[in-house]
């Protein structure tokens, strides 16, 4: 569907919006800003450039030592055609915390949000029509400068690209079936599980690939120290529901502090649930009434089953679930259907 507004500008890119999935679709522009170590981008001026390959030295710290962070956030189109970003200030702050851990200089919160806005505006006709998906924005912060001895890069690049994304990550329309891998771990105490560094992702490929080959949607990881407690899924947080109580593992260095997680906890409290952050033994997970995952890509995805060793626990899914109510509320705010009295959405000018 390509359409044109009253001024003759194309309002939507010419793709089949009904077929939108998760394959990366190149859009028109990306944002780039560079800085040298020490100035934290305060002297830097970023700019939009045509989307395309970037040149990077084989000596760069990101290629040799994985000195890199990613973020992820979405822009949604409202029914009346406005475009809303969801909580970009939170992504900016999370990137700053990760940057300190990796000794990367980082953009200010204002620079980050301004860059995200510019990228979304430049690619506005790639924001899907209301209800058909979202424009996923991927900020990256990488050590692009030359190093050979083990040290932080002397130059760093902040880049943002954007790609349209469908609505149903992990599952087509139903619930996710998770597999607990008790041999491979995602994060250890004192490590980097709590930041969104690029090194956290390829180590889950083996477990996730094997689980998908066996028909599971994704892998749920346990804590590396004892193997007894639930941590998170490969790219989403996890919640369990028992009666009126919603529980999720605490943020203590091995679990990513998800922005969706934080938002859902607040919404659940508003809706009258009891919300707990606590260490969740696998037994409590297997004994839960309902389970769901949260994240920018999955939004809120119900979990239909969890398989641990030789046991498969099944959970209630469908209309009358906590996850369904939370998803309706969260998605309603993100898409401008429910009034945002929390100041979570940022409209593009
Ligand atoms: C490992 C991991 N956990 C949780 C999340 C959910 O975080 P958010 O809700 O901020 O997208 C993500 C996605 O960013 C992730 O990669």
UniProtKB/TrEMBL annotation:
<dbReference type="GO" id="GO:0008652">
    <property type="term" value="P:amino acid biosynthetic process"/>
</dbReference>
<dbReference type="InterPro" id="IPR005786">
    <property type="entry name" value="B_amino_transII"/>
</dbReference>
<dbReference type="GO" id="GO:0052655">
    <property type="term" value="F:L-valine-2-oxoglutarate transaminase activity"/>
</dbReference>
<dbReference type="Pfam" id="PF01063">
    <property type="entry name" value="Aminotran_4"/>
</dbReference>
<protein>
    <recommendedName>
        <fullName>Branched-chain-amino-acid aminotransferase</fullName>
        <ecNumber>2.6.1.42</ecNumber>
    </recommendedName>
</protein>
<dbReference type="GO" id="GO:0052656">
    <property type="term" value="F:L-isoleucine-2-oxoglutarate transaminase activity"/>
</dbReference>
<comment type="similarity">
    <text>Belongs to the class-IV pyridoxal-phosphate-dependent aminotransferase family.</text>
</comment>
<keyword id="KW-0032">Aminotransferase</keyword>
<dbReference type="GO" id="GO:0009082">
    <property type="term" value="P:branched-chain amino acid biosynthetic process"/>
</dbReference>
<dbReference type="InterPro" id="IPR001544">
    <property type="entry name" value="Aminotrans_IV"/>
</dbReference>
<dbReference type="InterPro" id="IPR043132">
    <property type="entry name" value="BCAT-like_C"/>
</dbReference>
<keyword id="KW-0808">Transferase</keyword>
<dbReference type="InterPro" id="IPR018300">
    <property type="entry name" value="Aminotrans_IV_CS"/>
</dbReference>
<dbReference type="InterPro" id="IPR043131">
    <property type="entry name" value="BCAT-like_N"/>
</dbReference>
<feature type="modified residue" description="N6-(pyridoxal phosphate)lysine">
    <location>
        <position position="196"/>
    </location>
</feature>
<dbReference type="InterPro" id="IPR036038">
    <property type="entry name" value="Aminotransferase-like"/>
</dbReference>
<dbReference type="GO" id="GO:0052654">
    <property type="term" value="F:L-leucine-2-oxoglutarate transaminase activity"/>
</dbReference>
<keyword id="KW-0100">Branched-chain amino acid biosynthesis</keyword>
<keyword id="KW-0663">Pyridoxal phosphate</keyword>
<dbReference type="InterPro" id="IPR033939">
    <property type="entry name" value="BCAT_family"/>
</dbReference>
<keyword id="KW-0028">Amino-acid biosynthesis</keyword>
């Amino acid at each position: 569907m390509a359409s044109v507004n009253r001024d003759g500008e194309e309002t939507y890119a010419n793709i089949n919006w009904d077929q939108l999935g998760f394959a990366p679709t190149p859009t028109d522009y990306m944002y780039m800003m560079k800085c040298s170590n020490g100035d934290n981008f305060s002297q830097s001026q970023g700019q939009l450039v045509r989307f395309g390959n970037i040149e990077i030295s084989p000596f760069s710290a990101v290629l040799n030592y994985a000195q890199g962070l990613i973020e992820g956030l979405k822009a949604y189109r409202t029914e009346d055609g406005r475009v809303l970003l969801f909580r970009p200030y939170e992504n900016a702050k999370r990137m700053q915390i990760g940057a300190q851990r990796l000794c990367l200089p980082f953009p200010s919160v204002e620079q980050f949000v301004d860059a995200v806005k510019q990228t979304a505006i430049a690619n506005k006709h790639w924001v899907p029509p209301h209800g058909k998906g979202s424009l996923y924005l991927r900020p990256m912060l990488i050590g692009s400068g030359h190093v050979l001895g083990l040290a932080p890069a002397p130059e760093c690049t902040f880049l943002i690209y954007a790609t349209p994304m469908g609505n149903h990550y992990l599952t087509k329309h139903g619930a996710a079936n998770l597999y607990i891998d008790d041999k491979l771990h995602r994060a250890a105490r004192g490590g980097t599980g709590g930041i969104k560094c690029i090194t956290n992702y390829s180590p889950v490929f083996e477990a996730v690939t094997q689980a998908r080959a066996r028909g599971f949607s994704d892998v749920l990881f346990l804590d590396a120290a004892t193997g007894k407690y639930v941590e998170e899924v490969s790219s989403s947080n996890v919640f369990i529901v028992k009666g009126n109580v919603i529980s999720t593992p605490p943020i203590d260095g091995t679990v990513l502090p998800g922005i969706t997680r934080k938002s859902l906890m607040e919404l659940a409290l508003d809706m009258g649930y009891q919300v707990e952050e606590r260490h969740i033994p696998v037994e409590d997970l297997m004994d839960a009434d309902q389970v769901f995952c949260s994240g920018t890509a999955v939004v809120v995805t119900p979990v239909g089953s969890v398989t641990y060793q030789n046991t498969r626990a099944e959970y209630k899914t469908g209309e009358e679930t906590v996850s369904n109510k939370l998803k309706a509320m969260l998605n309603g705010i993100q898409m401008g259907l429910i009034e945002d009295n929390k100041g979570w959405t940022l409209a593009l000018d």
